[in-house]
UniProtKB/TrEMBL annotation:
Protein known as: Response regulator
PROSITE patterns referenced in this protein's UniProt entry, alphabetically: RESPONSE_REGULATORY (PS50110)
GO terms of molecular function: phosphorelay response regulator activity
4-aspartylphosphate: residues bearing it: 94
UniProt keywords, alphabetically: Phosphoprotein
InterPro entries: 2C-system_Tx_regulators (IPR051271), CheY-like_superfamily (IPR011006), Sig_transdc_resp-reg_receiver (IPR001789)
Record domain Response regulatory: where: 43-159
Length: 171
């Protein structure tokens, strides 16, 4: 609920009051349309320790219709908290984070958030890593140096499926 004295413009989007359509003004109607559109967007969380790579992912997510960045984390523990807090639809996961292995992020997503699709994007793209992470439940695995177009296509397909169906996305 919105706290007293809080401006509607500073309140979190989920706290905004919703009025009946016939009582909305033009500005409120556009806000309502935006909120509905936001609810159908695919929520993407990034787990990556490189600021430069995070910038690339932010740019890619921003350019694909239907995607919404819901969090960025550079450490495993922060990412584990972030998944519980944000409950993303998709996680872009680097498997090597400042000396930490990203596997616990995938494990938590598979155990507690089965709807979350984890896409591993790593420079460690040898077949042994690919097989391990795919067998552990990753939705896809991409080499971040050479497979950015394939990653983008996958994100576009997931976003389009979500927008077309409104409530879920392709498996």
């Amino acid at each position: 609920m919105q706290e007293l004295g809080t401006s509607i413009h500073s309140a979190p989007w989920y706290c905004l009051p919703v009025e009946k359509p016939e009582t909305r003004g033009s500005e409120d109607h556009h806000l309502s349309q935006w909120l509905v559109a936001r609810e159908t967007m695919l929520r993407v969380m990034v787990v990556e320790d490189s600021d430069a790579v995070c910038g690339v992912w932010r740019h890619m997510i921003d350019k694909i219709e239907g995607l919404l960045l819901c969090g960025e984390y550079g450490h495993v523990m922060a990412a584990l908290v972030g998944i519980a807090k944000n409950q993303p639809d998709v996680v872009l996961l680097d498997i090597q984070l400042r000396g930490e292995c990203g596997a616990p992020v995938l494990q938590l997503a598979m155990e507690r958030y089965a709807h979350t699709k984890v896409i591993v994007v790593s420079n460690y793209a040898d077949d042994i890593y690919r097989r391990h992470y795919i067998n552990a439940g990753a939705y896809a695995f991409f080499d971040k140096s050479y497979e950015l177009k394939a990653l983008r296509r996958t994100l576009e397909q997931l976003a389009m499926a979500r927008l077309n169906r409104g409530d879920s996305y392709a498996d």
